[in-house]
Amino acid sequence: MEYLEFLKNLHDECLELSKEIRFDEKNPRQLHLIGLYGSVIELSFCVIVLINERLQIGVPCLFRSILETFVEFNNLYVEAEYGYNMEASFNKEWCKVLREAKKNTNPYLSEYNKSDKLDSLILEHEKELKSLIDRGYHPLNIYERFKKAGMTNEYNSLYNFLSRDAHSNISALIGRHYEVDGNNLKVTFYKDVPLENFVLYIDSIAGILIKATRMIHEFFQTRKMNEIKALDDKLSELRYKTEK
Q: What is the distance between the alpha carbons of residues 99 and 149, in angstroms, rounded to a whole number?
């Protein structure tokens, strides 16, 4: 399938181009931008693997992760101070986990409860979270992150559909397993899905990967914009050919 082959080649070329990026590992913004971009690349390849194996069930969930990652990437790219919102979310989640461990009722957190540093860790994260909030940097929920990125339309449509798969609701089950056979409803495991059914995912992921690649190379001034424009042109050509 031409679309899938394009995404494979796009992944490989973006990975190769990333070797040109030079960044300061002591600069949190630069470090997190690189980490988020790397996640977009790797998650894209995971989708390629699943589609190759016709494992449709994991594709929407991974695409949802790619979309969330790109939202974080976009927000940090636009505004350096967004890193403080990320830190606030980081500390908030650790506070929740460590407070749960303190109760000593959750077997999955027993190792934390055994630590003699648990109380000091809780205080450390609480103090850092309060400091960030006092400075106006709150933990943002997923809608607030999409809104900050100017992507509320995507949140209220695409992300909603993808979340149904992530949460395995009835809509997801219908798409994954149910088939009508005459007057009967048949439940199928590993439903045979034609590659054409994945075009929307492939196209969307390719668009995100190219956009993120352009942004990261602009940010670090790698002078690889001609190569990236060529990738974008290839996607435009493929879209035009598909629409005809």
A: 31
Residue 132 sits at the vertex; the CA angle it makes with 128 and 136, to the nearest 5 degrees, is 165
DSSP letter for each residue of 148-200: HTT-HHHIIIIIHHHHHHHTT-HHHHHHHHEEEETTEEEE-SS----GGGGHH
Q: Identify which of 1, 45, 48, 17 has the alpha carbon closest to the alpha carbon of residue 232.
A: 17
Residues near 148 by Cβ (< 8 Å), separated by ≥ 6?
A: 75, 82, 140
Residue 151 is assigned to a structural domain of this protein = no
Task: Tell me whether residue 99 is in a domain.
Answer: no
The contacts found for 233-242 with CB under 8 angstroms, 24 or more apart, are: 234/6, 234/10, 235/6, 235/10, 235/203, 235/206, 235/207, 235/210, 238/2, 238/3, 238/6, 239/203, 241/2, 242/3, 242/199
Contacts (Cβ under 8 Å, ≥6 apart) of 8: 48
**Identity at 54, one-letter amino acid code:** R
Provide the residue range defining the domain that includes 205: 1-78+163-220
Instruction: For 35-69, write each residue's pLDDT tens digit.
Output: 999 999 999 999 999 998 888 899 999 999 999 99
The mean pLDDT value for 72-79 works out to: 98
